[in-house]
## 1
Amino acid sequence: MNRFRFSLTTVLVFGLCACAPSSAGDDKSGESTPSVPPGFELAAAKTATADRRGNDAGIPRDFTNDRSQVVDLSVEELAALSASDDIWLIDVRTDEEVANGMVAGATHIPLAAFSPGPDLIDQAKGREIVLYCRSGRRSAIAAKNLSGYLGEPVKHLTGGFNAWKEADRDTQ
């Protein structure tokens, strides 16, 4: 057991050393390395949604479970769905991101304020809830949480608002 623990510790130490950022002086291009590693925001969001008692991020509960299912929608599929009045499209990006535009007809509920529950379901007025964010990561987190609450699959836009704009679709 101790031998295994030593081997695992050794592998972890070498792995961390290999992944450590190089010093700024080693960069020949003159560009500085980012201070926050890529994906940090997503990791923080996953950690924030994991707390079932509430947390400082403002995400009050986590309903994810084995029943949680997320359905990825392409831009074309969302455009076809949004042509009807049968969906409620929710933008879970931050206020700052929404200030630069959003999908036409969407409602803004930041991820930090997004809380699956009776109030959200009442606001949907029988319409199917579809989510999106900037790239699809945060909306997938929100969709998984909502799916766990509802016990049924929830759709979100793969590629998010970036894909929507790239496809030259209507924004407001």
## 2
Amino acid sequence: TLYKLYAYVVGFRSAVGSSGGEAVRSGEQALGGQSPGAEEQHAPQQHPPAEWINSVTTQPACWPHIGGSNIMKWDDMDTNAWFSMRTLSLSAPVSVGVDLCEELNRVASLVREEGNRRQPSRPRNRTLPYARAEGPFVTRRERLYPTTEQKEALRKVAGVYRWTFNRAIAYLRQHPHSNLTQVRQATVKSTSIDEQDKEWVFKIPYAIRAQAAEEAHTANRNSQRAQAEGRIDHFTLHFRKRRSGFGGFKLEKRQWKDGTLHIPELLDGPIRVRTPIRSIEHDGATVRQQNGKWEVLWSVTAGEEDLPAPAGLGPRVCAIDPGVRTFATLFDPLVGIAIKVGEGANARIFRLGLHLDNLLSRMAASNAKQRYRMRKAANRLRKRIKDLTTDLHKKLASFLRANYDTVFIPTFNAHEMSRRGKRRIGRRTIRQMMSLAHGRFRSWLGWKMKTVEIKEDWTSKTCSTCGRVNYRLGGSDTHRCPSCGTHSDRDVNAAKNIFIHSLFDLRRSLTTTGNGLNTAVVHL
């Protein structure tokens, strides 16, 4: 019995690795608490698709070799960021006489052909008379610097706006098919409000309160339309609650004059802004408070630089392997390099998360004044964590748009991998993975450029040189092939496999519509 317990503990440590485990892909890692050997004994061993494995064996000779990437020196890139970016020069392809540029141009043509084959979805027509015109829009944001008196006035406006919005939600719950005029008459008109008890309501301009009623009506109308189209099963209109340091309201275009906000009934003068905003287009603007800081957001017509760059325009291609210990690993076959972005970034974010946990645990044993201050400190910590991840996402997305024409990226369904009862990684790794917000990064990258998304099953365990599967990879950061003996960096090996997998899926999707394997999706 003691021997079995010892074997169990040793097997578990070898499975999760020295760092406590790594975020792994669905179907790649041994079950949590078991060694790979135990999994092979108690569960039928899974195998990757044979057709894709056969394609791997014919591809590696055409692309840069990654052998020895686990021990080679990585060079730091000059980046003005809190996270690291390191690059590694890979060995030349084994095949002699292969024109990488010509081969990658063929890959780009496959991407364009696949994109042309998939028709983009037809945009929804706007039929309401007060709806804005169709067209690509982008949102701009500018910081506001109000005085102490102006801050108090903005908080009053936000409070009345929230009260009117909740009043409209309560009315729409009882009369869900009311039009906008009926909602305004029931919630904004002076005849519907007791003037003796609600004198503070009429100090706020009618136009701002009408915007609150319109926002509630729009939310109800959009939800009803989504339910009718079958996109959602049901919906519930929720009230907005009061939160210290948060809130906001919407404005009409006419309330923005001379590059700043004007509310003569409340503000003693214009609010200072760092960069004057010449005009507000389309649907007006939104003034909101985030962690005590005020800012204004407005929509403008998107320019050419704001639209996503199309995929497949040239030979500059890269494949991305997302992870936890390293946020993203890039494989660039044209230049012959691998790039690691955000290596160790999870540790810094996780440390801030521990500070947040400690703060929340001490909050329960504090008095009201201390809890108020701790709550504000917790909000600042949450914003700090989100700002770090957002900075990582935006700078990496800008780097990819500036240097590549086509990006192959896996889906990396973090929520599916973290589901209780099905996950194969520990709580610590799950928290680090969720804090990095890979889904938000894919969304942001989609706004910068068109991407090709694939599934990444077996890309870490499969050797990118010979196609042999290493079932005992576990959480090791080095991939050791049991067949050809190639030793390589785990993430670089996975990034190259994602590139090879993308080529296989593109060729297959253009020749057949079978349902046995993964299919690349060009997002247009």
## 3
Amino acid sequence: MPQRDIDPADLFLPPTEPIDITWMQAALAGTLPEDVDFPR
């Protein structure tokens, strides 16, 4: 099993928010909700 110290997906998630698939899909698509403070 490969060792995962840092999950690349974690870099796209706010540290205080749980992982949300819809949020991740929006982040990958470049269309984030307006209420999310995402550093460009």
## 4
Amino acid sequence: MKPTRAARQSHALSAARSRFARRRAPRRGMLWRSLAFPANLCPRAMTPPSPPSRLRKIALLLLKLAFCAAAVWYLSDKVTYYDYVRLGSDPDRPLRLLSETASTLVVSDGPDGQSRTVPRNELARREQLGKGQRDIERGIRHLATTADWNWAALAFVFLGPTTFVLAWRLQLLLATQEIAISFRDSLLLTFAGNFFNFAMPGTTGGDIYKAYHIARITHKRTEGITVVLLDRVIGLVSFLLLAAGTILAFWRTDLIGFYGRWVGYLTLSFFLAAGLFFSRRVRQWIRYDALLTRLPLGDKLKRIDDTAFSLRFHRGSAFLSLITTMASHFLIVASMYFTARSLGIYHSTLHTDTHLFWAVLLAAVVGFLLAAVPISIQGFGLLEAVFYKVLVDGGWATGSQMLALTLGFRLIQIAWSLPGVVVPWLGFAKPARQELAQVDAPILPQ
């Protein structure tokens, strides 16, 4: 039985609608182009995160919050809000200081909060005090209200040039891959990256932001994103070199402790691995290129590897980047030193032959390396653990002074990152959350 004319017309109309629907359906990768996002930036399709991915993110966030909570609990009996004193009659029992004059102290004594007046000559002597103890221990409130603003201004000024050094380093490393970017654009991206790193939750938002925009403005997207990683690696190498020198200088002292020796071993392992990575003989012996091609996404991994290995042929640029980075890290240490001086930290009761600057240098390089471990928010707890070991156990500071130092330095970092707020209005718009989620960024010190 032949189909009727009406049935044939209905069938033709249905086929035409089907063809039209197929033409209107977004093809693979269409969504990337509609968002002006580099399609080959990441092999994954832009789909909503799967339930396991969400669970991993939630679990990581809970881990970070738990670590921060544990750090707060640990510091709760070592950091005080009010001022306390220790008397020679019982130096292990701190008494809250209510008021003071040139010759007397009014302290709160007893469970009922009764006050009594004691002369200053009853304060504990230096030989009676343990690590991190003082005859008068100032609390966070006193430290914040009586900080020396001259030293604080120096700390602010010395940290400023580091942003410009990082911007120049990024421009120099991009030039090794024949990716042209002006110093202005590099500086804007660096300011914005610092804002996402220091003023927002997390530690890698700035790297994702820079990677996105570098990939957007160049046809060498894989190489551009790899340079963001290498830019961080240069910062890591600089810190490792500084750490190696300071740890070697203080190896026979009790200043570095467990953390310092652990970083010393890490430094040795890193440079050994770097030597193997850049060795042509080792690559030929283990058939390195063949191994890469067998891995998933081997072609992209090969381009990333070629970008990193190409620094071997740009030794001048790599060396210049490293030297300027080490100079910027000395500025960071100097800023932390001036912050410490503004809080009244200037000499040790135990290490009278060691200058405070070297103690801050040791604490900073080891602390920032450990703070790069992604188990905390902004490295809180890890940085404080190292500074407590070096400065408090070393007799330079009390627990309250140590915490005021680390928090005060973070505030200076945030202050210098605030210009990054306006960068999205200067041609570098903030990407959508779905776009940022496609870029994996390193977690390394700058």
